[in-house]
Amino acid sequence: ESPELEAEFTATVTADGRIEPRDWMPDAYRATLIRQIAQHAHSEIIGMQPEGNWISRAPSLRRKAILLAKVQDEAGHGLYLYAAAATLGADRTDLTEKLISGRQKYSSIFNYPTLTFADVGVIGWLVDGAAICNQVPLCRTSYGPYARAMIRVCKEESFHQRQGYELLMTMMRGSDNQRRMVQESVDRWWWPSLMMFGPPDDSSPNTERSMAWRIKRHTNDELRQKFVDMSVPQAEALGVTFPDPELRWNEERGQHDFGTPDFAELMRVVKGNGPCNAERIEHRRRAHEDGDWVREAAAAYAAKRAARAKG
Ligand code: ACO
């Protein structure tokens, strides 16, 4: 390692420049990016499951087509992100192995069950809304391939968020039962959505260094606050409430005060003990194993073509 290379890296990052795959970077910067991008990719792929659960039971052809498109988008996001991780030297098969053996994490939010069709709307509105809040600043993250992947991901996430909100608006114009379903779903997803932003800043081991490297552009608590402020007027327009008696506008701060999410619950879920962790990983493992023959066939075909090209 040379001090000149290190100085050049630091200068690029602090001038809001981009680090590209062939540039020198500290080992820990590379490791942090692989960790975050892999977790992000895994989240997109595991995130297909809770909603995939409703594809065959969507109430109309229109809702089914929208949901199918959305779940396919998530697969695409996972692929861009695995490709971004590959530019850092990570191997996709290895990342998948780490996911299904529980050695790498994915977002806590996807370990909660989807009990009603209203959950499809609430996931779009709140979960994808939280994802956008977190990911729009990542379009300016210091690592080029990650930043560029985020641009397209964010455009598609905005569509996901709108479809969720539109679905909920439709339900709110429906029967009392439908309105109750929406409120019940919001009550279940609100706190887990706030937990998506991670532990509070004073117990987030990675934030300080990731901020200095401009991998993260805002802290966990800053983004959580932004999400609350953004969601409150949307809830009012929709006609639902959030299950937080401490939630109120603070005139002095120009932001909302809100209660503390149950971070002990977040840690339990992250450690593998949420309501659906075992089921999600088991499903992913089965899908991976069922795909064995496809990978084998693709590799055999590629080898045959390569041999033919040579001969
Ligand atoms: N779910 C699972 N794990 C979490 C969560 C969460 N909601 N929040 C934090 N963690 C993990 C971190 O990954 C970290 O674990 P590790 O050090 O073993 O890797 C640990 O808890 C401590 O947290 P932080 O120090 O705050 O970690 P970090 O700086 O990485 O911040 C964050 C966490 C905000 C999630 C960040 O990694 C990030 O912005 N990631 C990109 C976005 C993303 O992954 N979104 C996925 C969900 S959205 C979607 O797919 C629709």
User: How far from one another are the termini?
Assistant: 44 Å
Read across the widest sheet, the strand sequence of neighbours is 1-2
Strand-residue fraction? under 5%
Percent helix: 55-70%
Shape: globular
Class by SSE composition: mainly alpha
How many strand units?
2
Could you say which small molecules are bound to this protein? acetyl coenzyme *A
> What is the average per-residue confidence, as pLDDT, rounded to a whole number?
97
Would you give an account of this structure?
There is one protein chain. This protein is an all-alpha fold and 311 residues long. Helix content is 67%, strand content 2%. The chain has helices spanning 3-14, 27-46, 48-52, 61-86, 92-100, 118-135, 144-172, 176-195, 207-212, 220-238, 263-273, 277-290, 292-310; strands at residues 248-250, 255-257. A hairpin with a 4-residue loop joins strand 1 and strand 2. The protein is globular. The model has no long low-confidence stretch (mean pLDDT 97). Residues 35-36, 39-40, 43-44, 47, 105, 107-108, 131, 134, 195-199, 204-207, 210, 216, 220, 270 line the site of acetyl coenzyme *A (ACO).
